[in-house]
Amino acid sequence: MSLEKAVEAIIREAQERGDFDNLKGRGKPIDLSAYFETPEDVRMAYSMLKNAGMVSAEIDLLNEIAALKERLTTTYEEKDRSRIQKMIREKQLQFNIMMERQKRQRKET
User: Inter-axis angle of helices 78-108 and 57-73, to 10 degrees?
Assistant: First the structure.
């Protein structure tokens, strides 16, 4: 049996058991805007760092933003929602500033 067929069989068995039924974000489109807003050379560097087990400050921020957005979907009290939305805006601003600095540094070199 080829590797491809073995993997397909494992996936099929997991589907039959229902292992994929309650995945986070199921049925929702994946928001990749932050990924594609990041320059390709920076994405490549991040990928290499990630494979080496290291995560940059920018990736940490993106992860924090994603976690806050997920938390927002399960928060119903308006006071808490406002606080979380403010945190998302602040972290998004931090991320944008980091990216702008990197863009300027690349132009200078």
Answer: 160
pLDDT band at 76 (very low <50, low <70, confident <90, very high): very high
- Among candidate residues 108, 96, 101, 88, the one with its CA nearest the CA of residue 37: 96
Tokens of 68: 């806050």
| Whole-number Å distance between alpha carbons of 49 and 72 | 29
Tokens at 89, concatenated: 């805006």
Q: pTM of the prediction?
A: 0.53
Kindly tell me if the per-residue pLDDT of 71 is higher than 70: yes
DSSP string, 50-97: HHTT---HHHHHHHHHHHHHHHHHT---HHHHHHHHHHHHHHHHHHHH
Distances 20 to 26, 32, 69 between C-alpha atoms, Å: 9, 21, 22
